[in-house]
Amino acid sequence: MNIALKETLDLAVTGQIWRIYYDQFSNNLLVEIRKATVRQTSFIIINLDNGKYEELKIKLENNWWIGVCAFKMPYLIINHYPDPALPESKGVICYSCNIHALLWQHLSLHFVEITDHFVIAFSKDSNKNFGINLETGLLKEIDDNYQENPNHLLLRNLMVNPVVYQDNCMDFSNIAEFIKKKLSVVPRKAIEYLEFTQYIIISFYIYGTNDLVLYNTLVVYSRNGELLLKVDLAVDKKGVGENTFTVFNTSLVFIKNTNQIAVYELG
């Protein structure tokens, strides 16, 4: 049986890809991009079904001191940090990804989680939980047992992350030996490993010429050991990271050099 990977997206952005969020119902990714030199945050939405993407044109007065709470098309829920000296976030702000506009905001509440039709938020002033209707922004007080209500089904991210093996464990040694035989290189520090359907996906590091910097490489093999993909993810790294790749539904997603996102369909 022939196994092939289909590249559906290879997109370079201006800035650093900070974080990726997944909506399992629409099979869309939200990519958060930060530009430190101008202290700006922007977003791109990627449809994994067809590889199409668009910039989310929302305007915030100060979009650097914000954080993404949840992403469920067409809703983007964010909060903000009113005091940059303090790490505490505040507010529940909802934007529409369809009309690129603010829908509603409750600046005194604190985000807890998102459900099928509501955002759950907490008021420190009253010590109560509230359900915020995603479409209208209307508040409804709820009790602490809201999770037991079948009408408040919690959303869970359906994504698969690799297992991380440090260089002091037997699994690391076994996988490193496999890579050494296949590619004639010696992995160092840590390996990320995932078996997904008929694929074996590995992210590993090797030292540069001076043993002071690391090179990060991603490889995809079939179950019978055929090399299907080999990509350099990063060079001149000072240390290792986690979740250098993720599988969303059946799409392999990874970041190259902090500013390039690639998507391959695991057919």
Question: Which secondary structure elements does this structure contain, and how are they paired or packed?
Answer:
Blueprint lengths: L4 E8 L3 E8 L4 E8 L4 E8 L5 E4 L9 E7 L2 E6 L9 E7 L4 E6 L3 E5 L3 E6 L4 E6 L5 E4 L16 E2 L2 E4 L3 H14 L4 E9 L2 E9 L6 E9 L4 E11 L7 E4 L2 E6 L3 E7 L1
Antiparallel strand pairs: 1-22, 2-3, 3-4, 4-5, 6-7, 7-8, 8-9, 10-11, 11-12, 12-13, 14-20, 15-16, 16-17, 17-18, 18-19, 20-21, 21-22
Low-confidence stretches: none
Side by side, the strands of the main sheet go: 1-22-21-20-14
Strand tally is: 22
Structural class: mainly beta
State Rg: 21 Å
Shape: elongated
Main beta sheet strand tally, sense and closure: 5 strands, antiparallel
Strand content: over 45%
Domain count: the total is 2
Please state the average pLDDT score: 90
In whole angstroms, the N-to-C terminal distance is 12 Å
Element-level helix/strand string: EEEEEEEEEEEEEEEHEEEEEEE
Question: Please, how many helices?
Answer: 1
**Helix percentage:** under 10%
Task: Jot down its keywords.
single chain, 267 residues, mainly beta, five-stranded antiparallel beta sheet, 1 helix, 22 strands
Please give a structural write-up.
The chain is mainly beta. The chain contains one helix and 22 strands. It has a five-stranded antiparallel β-sheet with strand order 1-22-21-20-14, with no helix packed on it. Strands 15-16-17-18-19 form a five-stranded antiparallel β-sheet, covered by helices on one side. The longest helix has 14 residues, at 170-183.
Question: What is the compact description of this entry?
Answer:
This protein is mostly beta strands and 267 residues long. It has one helix and 22 strands. The protein folds into two domains: 14-152; 162-242, no CATH class.
